[in-house]
Amino acid sequence: MAPQQPLQPAYILHSRPYSDSSLILELLTPEFGRVGCVARGARRDKQRRQQSLQPFAPLLVSLLGRGELKTLGPVESAGGANWLKGRAVYAGLYANELLVRLLAAGEAQYELFACYQTLLQKLALLDGSSAEQLEAPLRRFELQLLQELGGCPQLNYCAHSQGPVTAGATYRLESETGFVPVFRGGDDRVAPSEFSGADLLGLEQALGGEEFPAALLSPAKRLTRLLLAPLLGDRPLQSRELFRQVYRNNDR
């Protein structure tokens, strides 16, 4: 008999049909990070799917087997589901897709698991009526994810001086180096890869605080887009395309 792991916390990131009656699930767990498993008979057991195998719901799962693709054993609820509404649903799907696309399988993700839980809790508080509501929780999560992946340089560190950035200076993001100072005349236009030292210091502070200041949302979005692009490659995010199709008159 295949060994069964102890029950552990999990969220379902993605599911797809497998054979006539089963599902393949992508889970996020603290101990194994992203892990794939087969939920045997789940497509046939409609009640089980409706009650437990739903996204954004905290679970306790047992996993059988030693291979990369495990078998899902008993599943228990670990609390009330995070009921996301309106546009917040698509923000949750976006976060799930990022995790599936960017996380290597089988690597522990204790900190990221906690960040994901916090994101869902924040999204569940929103009524989902506007895209602007999503900006602060998503920008925080993107930066946290990038930091955990090693894809974000230290925000308050200047790679040129090997010291802290200066609030009054301007810095350019270089992919292999980090943030380096920019020296130019005052009339030159700021490039998309350039950030003020004040913004970088503010972003570093915001990641450790409770609130994400509205003034930092624009530079945070510009920074995360720059950092995520090489990791995601040319294949578009399905969740972003779906959001645009449903809310055609809203920017995201």
UniProtKB/TrEMBL annotation:
GO terms for biological process: DNA recombination; double-strand break repair. HAMAP family: RecO. The gene is recO. Gene3D superfamilies: Nucleic acid-binding proteins, Recombination protein O, C-terminal domain. Keywords: DNA damage, DNA recombination, DNA repair. The keyword DNA damage applies. Residues 8-76 form the DNA replication/recombination mediator RecO N-terminal domain. Belongs to the RecO family. InterPro entries: ARFGAP/RecO (IPR037278), DNA_rep/recomb_RecO_N (IPR022572), NA-bd_OB-fold (IPR012340), RecO (IPR003717), RecO_C (IPR042242). Involved in DNA repair and RecF pathway recombination. The keyword Zinc-finger does not apply. This is DNA repair protein RecO. SUPFAM superfamilies: ArfGap/RecO-like zinc finger, Nucleic acid-binding proteins. One of its GO terms (cellular component) is bacterial nucleoid. Pfam families: RecO_C (PF02565), RecO_N (PF11967).
